[in-house]
UniProtKB/TrEMBL annotation:
It is a multi-pass membrane protein. GO terms for cellular component: plasma membrane. Keywords: Cell membrane, Membrane, Transmembrane, Transmembrane helix. The chain crosses the membrane at residues 12-32, 38-57, 87-109, 121-144, 156-175, 181-203, 215-238, 244-263. It is found in: Cell membrane. This is Major Facilitator Superfamily transporter. SUPFAM superfamilies: MFS general substrate transporter. Its main location: membrane. The keyword Transmembrane helix applies. The keyword Transmembrane helix applies.
Amino acid sequence: MPLEWVTGLYGVIDRIASMAGAALGGGLIAWVGAPGALYADAASFLVCALILGLTAGSPPLVPVADRDPVPYVQKLRRGWDFLRRDVVLVGMSAIVAATNLLDLAWSAVLMPVWGRNSGHGAAGIGVLFAVFSACAALSSMAAARWAERLPRFRTYVIAYLLTGLPRFAVLALGSPLCVCVAVFAIGGLACGFLNPILGAVVFERIPERLVGRVSALNSALCWSLMPLGGLLGGLLAASLGLAPVLWVVGTAYLLVTLLPLLVPSFREFDSRPAPEPVRARTSGHSV
């Protein structure tokens, strides 16, 4: 089974949850106000904890003799030694970390400020987030079906370009809400192709014995700058104003997403492992 099928379907679930959350959050704020929406959000976490506690079984106990004697820190060090030697994985992690930083500045600070200044409020923000996530879910389904036939590197670059600067520019220009919805829809459709491609590349390049620790380190690197996104957005918005900071952050997003064009190793995105040979079968058992 092509990895894009698995990573694409995983992305569909994530995007559908984002779409429902954005729409529900905007609706709750418009209906009961921000404090009431926060109480509802807190209650949803309690419900999720109860569902998890009632449905998740206990993990199987591993006998002491079968446990890996290698200390946890040493395992992580081995994963890091592999990760830092793979130029593609390191470059991909750095780019995703930078775009996550800019995305958090946008979603945590710049979008709420735009909602207040434009008069569209929480409802307008909810509409844009829901449209973006819905279109991303649709394109994730398409990626699960057809991404294996597409040139990965070209698709990756084009998708990043469409999902980045345009959504910052349309807000900075003070465009009508209908125009913003159209631009966000295009960005969402492009965005849905990113995670299936990135996930497939990650799993293809990591040896099976190192998948857990290397993929965990890769995720940690990708998320490492996210806590600073709100701080960055707040400082820039307070010092420059909304429209200038949207152009600054959007331009930075564009420059970051153009970096793969300057790094030859990113062309390895299109290198897929050879399919495993079909094994002969005798009496219903693999030989």
